[in-house]
Design goal:
Blueprint lengths: L1 H10 L21 H4 L7 H4 L3 H8 L12 H9 L1 H5 L6 H5 L2
Length: 98
């Protein structure tokens, strides 16, 4: 049976079934969506299992500009330390603050 299936593929030019069309883009995926999406959105459902890592570890948040390394990062860490923990390990502070 496998031989027949292989022969059919060869005779048809090795074309398999047509790929599934991409899912429709949700209405809420307008320009600010990458910045304003809610934590826990099911991005992996359409973008794959490593979608969050790809965006969140390859792109710094908008507030992490050149001035952020000054006083701003300390204030942000005191206000929402869990946000820092999304990318940084617990010992990240100790690398600079000894």
């Amino acid at each position: 049976m496998r031989l027949i299936a292989c022969a059919l593929l060869i005779l048809t030019g090795c074309r398999g079934p047509a790929p599934a069309p991409p899912p429709a883009r949700p209405a809420d995926h307008d320009l600010p969506f990458p910045v304003d999406h809610a934590p826990g959105d099911d991005c992996a459902r359409c973008h794959g299992p490593d979608a969050c890592v790809r965006c969140h570890l390859e792109r710094a948040p908008r507030d992490h500009g050149p001035a952020f390394a000054g006083v701003a990062h300390g204030v942000a860490a005191r206000v929402d330390a869990a946000r820092c923990g999304a990318c940084h390990t617990a010992d990240a502070c100790a690398l600079c603050h000894r």
